[in-house]
Amino acid sequence: MLFLCTANSARSILAEALLNRLGGGRFRAFSAGSHPRGTVHPCALELLRQRGFAVADLRSKSWDEFAAPGAMPVDCVITVCDAAAGEACPLWPGQPLTAHWGIVDPAAVGGSDEQRMAAFARAFDALEARIRRLSSLPTSGADRDELQRQLREIGRMPGAVAPP
User: Fold this and answer.
1) Please, what are the averages of pLDDT over each run of 10 residues along the chain (164 residues)?
2) What's the gap between Cα 106 and its chain centre?
3) pTM greater than 0.85
4) Which one of the listed residues 44, 80, 81, 134 is annotated catalytic?
5) Is 43 a catalytic residue?
6) Which helix (H) or strand (E) segment is 3 a member of?
7) Does residue 159 sit within a domain?
C-alpha cells in the first residue's frame, strides 16, 4: 500500500505508520509525495511517539521511488490529500487499485502548540478509523472490483474536520 500526499510530511506518514501497525502483517505500507518536503513534520513525529510508534525509519520521500523502472510494485495507491489526488500521478507498475481518502491537512493549522497537536490528533483518528476498516477487509481471494469499491467507500468515511 502506498499512501500519497503532496509533501509526504504528515498525513501520508501517519497512514504509513498506522497501517504497518494495525495491518497485522497482512499489509506493508509506504508513503511518498509529489513534492516531498524532505522532512517529516515535527508534530507528526511527536504524536506518533506519544502513541507508542517507532519513528526512526519514517522519512519524507518522492513518489518517483515507487514509479521508477524496477521499483517494487504496489497493490494499492491511496491519496490522502486533495492536492495529490488532483495531480497527474506517475504510471504505477502493476496497475494498482486506487482510492482517495481526503483528510484535512493538520500541517496547515496555525495557532498554539496545543491547537496544532489537536489538528494532528484529529487527522490521526480519522486515518485510524479508515485503516481499521481496511484491515478488516478480506483480501485473500477477494474480487478486485469489490476491493476497489470497498477502498473508495472507505474514502467516504468522515474525515478529520477543522476545530469547532
Assistant:
1) 95 98 94 95 98 96 89 91 64 84 92 96 96 90 90 85 47
2) 13
3) yes
4) 81
5) no
6) strand 2-5
7) no
